[in-house]
Design a protein that fits this description.
Blueprint (H helix, E strand, L loop, with lengths): L2 H12 L5 H11 L2 H7 L9 H10 L7 H10 L1 H10 L10 H15 L3 E6 L13 E6 L2 E5 L15 E7 L11 E8 L8 H9 L6 H16 L3 E4 L2 H9 L7 E7 L7 H18 L2 E7 L17 H4 L3 E5 L2 E6 L5 E4 L1
Parallel strand pairs: 1-5, 1-7, 2-4, 4-11, 5-6, 7-8
Antiparallel strand pairs: 2-3, 8-9, 9-10, 10-11
Helix pairs in contact: 1-2, 2-5, 4-6, 4-8, 10-11
């Protein structure tokens, strides 16, 4: 896919339902040969739409028509380039815990043990707290609410984020939150929740109109600051086995990731799958993969689920549990359709 096609696809299919602003900007860039030529001066892995859009927002671009956005980017091109080349799209969406929770709770219940969690591509580690957030699962007019143990030291105004998720099909919504006794993550460049620039970057990665996600981020950061996770710097394929060795042996280990596999090539994905397989055999590790379906390698080498219409998955994630597709998930945790 060429750069212009990449931006047009994002602006036409991925962005419209969540951000009309990003949809307009992305289509505008796709139809702007001069800006495309500038973007193509960057390494290929720096040309992705969300990276330049977030860089502009980080520098102060407002929610404007494309013409004003373009003027801002051109006037600040040197700084935009600096941000793009020094940062990465490390969206740390706590809302994804809502789509992971049914699987995590099911794994904990089946094993009869608490969980030890490792997230690969962890960013600031905010998805490592599924036991600390509140949830509301919506099915028509019915709502199932789950709350963590109350923290008497916190006021309601500073309470945990409430993650809302619309469910379809036989989603195994748990009756209580699983116990997590250990949590750790791996990232090429972990973000520090106590670093103002890193926090500002996390906010810039949230799509412009989604103020509720910014509030959710703020509350999730407050939770993480009370009990910071262990975050390891490095390549997931080089660090995973050693980190897994630090997990408590009396806990059930779960390795999970969301929107990470697109940044690995086919060989790196295959190495990761082999490592997961070895961990499963050696210590009963479970694996949750929450990814765009085009990067999910099946056993036969295909990259889609053969029996499923590709259009059904457009713009959403495919959730696999131990390599088996179990659900279609909203990319920010807003929906979960059980298969």
């Amino acid at each position: 896919m060429g750069t212009a096609d990449w931006y047009r696809n994002f602006g036409t299919f991925d962005a419209p339902s969540s951000s009309p602003c990003y949809a307009e900007w992305s289509v505008g860039i796709a139809d702007d040969p001069e800006l495309i030529r500038c973007i193509e001066q960057w390494p290929h892995n720096k040309r992705q739409p969300l990276l330049i859009l977030a860089a502009a927002r980080f520098l102060g671009a407002g929610i404007t028509p494309y013409r004003a956005f373009r003027e801002f980017v051109v006037a600040n091109w040197e700084e935009v380039s600096r941000i793009v080349l020094s940062r990465a799209t490390q969206t740390n969406e706590a809302g994804r815990c809502a789509t992971l929770l049914p699987s995590l709770a099911g794994i904990a219940a089946a094993s009869g043990r608490p969980l030890a969690l490792i997230e690969v591509g962890a960013s600031a580690g905010l998805a490592l707290y599924p036991d600390k957030y509140a949830y509301e699962y919506h099915r028509g007019a019915s709502v199932t609410r789950l709350d963590p143990q109350p923290d008497t030291a916190r006021s309601p105004a500073d309470g945990p984020p409430v993650l809302h998720c619309t469910v379809q099909g036989a989603v195994p919504v748990p009756s209580r939150l699983p116990e997590v006794v250990w949590r750790a993550g791996i990232d090429l460049n972990p973000l520090d929740i106590n670093n103002p620039d890193d926090v500002a970057w996390l906010e810039a990665l949230i799509w412009p109109e989604q103020d509720f996600r910014r509030e959710r981020l703020r509350r999730a950061i407050a939770i993480a600051r009370q009990d910071p996770p262990l975050l390891v710097t490095g390549d997931l394929n080089e660090q995973l086995v050693a980190l897994a060795g630090q997990a408590p042996p009396d806990a059930t280990l779960v390795v999970f990731h969301s929107a990470v596999m697109a940044y690995l090539n086919a060989s790196q994905r295959e190495t990761f799958r082999a490592t997961i397989g070895a961990l499963a055999a050696e210590r009963g590790c479970h694996w949750l993969s929450n990814e765009g379906h085009t990067v999910v390698a099946q056993a036969d080498g295909s990259v889609v689920v053969p029996e499923m219409d590709d259009a059904r998955l457009q713009g959403r994630f495919l959730l696999l549990q131990d390599g088996v597709p179990v659900a279609i998930a909203g990319p920010h945790g807003q929906s979960l359709e059980w298969l």
